[in-house]
Amino acid sequence: MPQASSMPQASSMQHARVRSAVLIGVQAHVVDVEVDIGVGLPGLAIVGLPDTSVGEARERVRTAIRNAGFTWPDRRVTVALGPAGLPKRGAGLDLAIACAVLAAQGTLDPRALAGMLIVGELRLDGTVHAVPGALAMALCAREIGVGVIMPGRMAAEARLLPGLVVRHLDALVAAVRGGGAPDGGGGAAALLGPSGGGAAPAPGPATGASDHDRHPVTPLEPLPDLADVRGHDAARLALEVAAAGGHHLAMVGPPGVGKSLLAERMPGLLPPLTDAERVAVLAVHGAVDSPLRASVAAGRPTFIAPHHTVGRTAMVGGGSGMDVRVGLVTLAHRGVLFLDEAAEFPGSVLDALRQPLEAGRIVVHRTGFRATLPAEFQLLLASNPCPCGPPPGGQCACTPHARRRYLTRISGPILDRIDIRLTLRAPSRAELRGPAGEASATIATRIRVARERAAHRLAAGGWLLNARVPGAHLRHLPPPAGSHLLDDALDRGRLSPRGVDRVLRVAWTCADLNGRSRPDSDDVGLALALRDPHGAWTG
Ligand SMILES: [Zn+2]
Q1: Domain residues of the chain, as ranges?
Q2: What predicted TM-score, i.e. pTM, was given to this entire model?
Q3: Measured in angstroms, how far is the CA atom of residue 387 from the centroid of ligand 1?
Q4: Which of 109, 41, 47, 106 is nearest to 78 (CA)?
Q5: Is domain 11-214 annotated with CATH 3.30.230.10?
Q6: Which of 109, 205, 260, 484 stands 20 to 30 A from 424 (CA)?
Q7: Fold type of domain 226-427+436-529
Q8: Distance 539 CA to ligand 1 centre (A)
Q9: Which residues pair with 79 in a beta bridge?
């Protein structure tokens, strides 16, 4: 600037810098918010790749500060958001911008903001509202070693993280008021509200005060229980083995035979999420304001069951431009993804599952940034045996060709990762009249013990579940007692080399469930049977 040297007021330029964050996908990224109050025509400029929603912060911040009873500087205010390449979306930067302006003009002591990451949306009346992604932002803050200041509803979620300073807005209210004690719950919402009178905080659950603090949490519905399922002994066993080893499972059977009924019971068999898993999954669900948050917070693995008309982006996420969409596979992270009518899903959607099935995540590359969406889920597939889907006992109207082709729509690379395959038949009348089956809780206990056994054995390799163990590692172990069965199947062409690996993985899970230190011929025989060698699945 050529006229800079002639500016006598240069020394009176006021400056402040605070930290905030934006969400990209399900991860929060730090944004530096710098404010300069300098000479020039009064006005407010925001620079640093803001999208329109951040552009609108100009009006929200200026009006909120005035309506809260403070003065807006009658000078040139420049807000710089960095790093420049990062897309900045949403209203969550409002509070940080307002705090930086108040600090730059000396209204707010910068020491109240130091070492904190500040997030929240401002309304025109000066109230502060929650934005999605509290836990993701808290994780980001912990990673860089700072605390967080956020509205109560967000703070309640962020407090799940140990070792993180979480300040409710009350602390900032006190700081704005020169250290005076904040008044009751209302002060939390009207962060920038003047100390006497002023705008009342807006009512409603989105205001700063935490609704978690005030209302008892609604109890969750009990999970569907296997005790309600009659018959289906083979399927019950397959579900138990799948849950114990983390194996993907595919089942085929006529409509109404009970495929969904069985699949829905998987979450009740899986162990509850560990604390670390709960935080990771809740960060995902908090980022998209998902209705499953309460269930995840209670430690339940998610059960995501999309309709077969779902599109590719909705399924795996991604999208285009600055937008990073979170897909259903990410909502199923550490839980179950159930594809009913699997053969009816478009081939492109099924193929898109390959990356998450292989890597446990989706990586989105964009100019200037990269987003990683976690997507480590257990896949359950179900299908009718043919396109017409005859009722149990009914006649199939399909040509033999159509029947043969139907299941091959589920392509080899997907089916290749499915260790357990199953053909269901309708339970007999005697089975339906028979005694109730074992309850999920009883089976879950066996599953937990088997998982502990596997985790202990696999710890050296860094795995937790048999399903994740690479084939090369399996083949280096001493062959199990029944491995002649595998050699036999391999020689006769009934098993491919990769098929042998899959059977070995399942055999180890069977051994874990049976309390054996390594598989015996019974375990290998069961694992072979769980591949459904005479059923509808091929490949
Ligand atoms: Zn048919």
Answers
A1: 11-214, 226-427+436-529
A2: 0.87
A3: 5
A4: 47
A5: yes
A6: 484
A7: Rossmann fold (3.40.50)
A8: 21
A9: 35, 46
